[in-house]
Amino acid sequence: MHDLPILLVEDDPIMGESMSHRLQLEHYPVEWVRDLCAARDSLRHRLYPLVLSDIRLPDGDGEQLLATMAERYGGCCPPVVFMTGFGSVEQAVRLVRGGAWDYIQKPFDLDALMHRIREWTAPGTQRCDAWFGISEAAQALEQLITRVAQLELPVLIQGESGTGKELVARRIHADMAKTRERIPYVAINCAALSETLLESELFGHEAGAFTGASRRHAGVFEQAHGGVLLLDEIGDMPLGAQAKLLRVLQDGQVRRVGGEKALQVHVRLICATHKPLNRLVETGSFREDLYYRISGLPIHLPPLRDRPEDTVWLAHRHVDELNARTGSCRRLDPRFAAWARLQPWNGNVRELFATVDRAYHLSADCWVRRERSSLPGTDCSRRGVEPLASGPEPLDRYLARVEHDYLEKCVSDNDGGITKTATALGISRKTLWEKLRRYRGGPQRR
Predict the structure, then answer these.
(1) What is the chain's alpha carbon radius of gyration, rounded to the nearest angstrom?
(2) What are 43-86's pLDDT values in tens digits?
(3) What is the domain range of residue 418?
(4) 127 domain-assigned
(5) Across-strand partners of 217?
(6) What is the three-class DSSP state of 167?
(7) Which residues, at least 6 apart from 394, have a Cβ–Cβ distance to it below 8 Å?
(8) 298-330: per-residue pLDDT in tens?
(9) Are 91 and 213 contained in the same domain?
């Protein structure tokens, strides 16, 4: 369900009722007004995620509406899409040049319109209870976590750096805490400590156990007793520490460094690594018996490039989180979203969030835009097109890739303006629009 309503400005009672009813069936709240005066009154009281307006209104036209919105919101004008008959297409083109996002020509198919509205209002695809995305892989992960949280077996989370392994661990802990009170959650990065310090952090130490140990220290197993312990980057754990960890998992007891008394501990163990442990076992750098002990419930996190539909969703969600922290009301620019969907994101969600962070804090108004001078990966080499492993690339694929990269560069150089880019290229706006839609896999807005 979407929070903010779409503003529909349509004087035709049949068309207005039909569109309003369809929007509500698709779970889009809608505010329907029938003239320019009512639209101006609505715009004074609320910021809409999308405005759908007929160009010709009983008391004015689209140009007057656009001027009102520009005066009211300045650089933070809500996206507006005009509906036009054949006779006013030229006026619709002028409106797009003047700041409207797009126009659609009557008569239009409502199914096609709804598809485009989903593109225009990308945040509306969010599920309020989702953590990882809207793709099938993300939804399957949500369901798996719910089942895993009800079990007591150890969990092994594997995936590339930045895919959200610790977030999965925290989600498991959160689901467990729904049925139990005050469950501790403790995490340690096994790659950040030397073997000596790692042993002390894992099992604790007594006062005087080594130089600098001035007082007793409880290890993470003690701290997490009765709760969840995350051993992050366990693939980097030294073999000596692996042997001691295995003993603890077998006996359920820890002995502090320098101590004589064994302490009984019970933890829900979650291990995470970006390294393939089965290969480490083959090379002898990870104990096979420990591998089988910790991999009771394996979870694999797919990289972001394998679920591109989650990219824009995650970017919108991160902007919402930043707004909550700063008290702002910024929104992700659709051209930023279109660009982000094309990137390979080798650093996965962590890289995406870092990029959104920079764009958010460098934003001059309420739009989070892609800044070519400040964002990484804006060159054509990062379009996500992989070369063939061997042999020449097929000619049609090569030509398509070159054309795609060149068109994207031209659009970027013209700040996302489709009309301006088409004029510079000597082709029609429609031709450029169709090419971009084919390459990007969806409708464009400007």
Answers:
(1) 28
(2) 887 778 789 999 989 999 888 998 888 777 665 567 788 888 76
(3) 307-440
(4) no
(5) 205
(6) helix
(7) none
(8) 999 999 999 888 898 899 889 988 988 888 778
(9) no
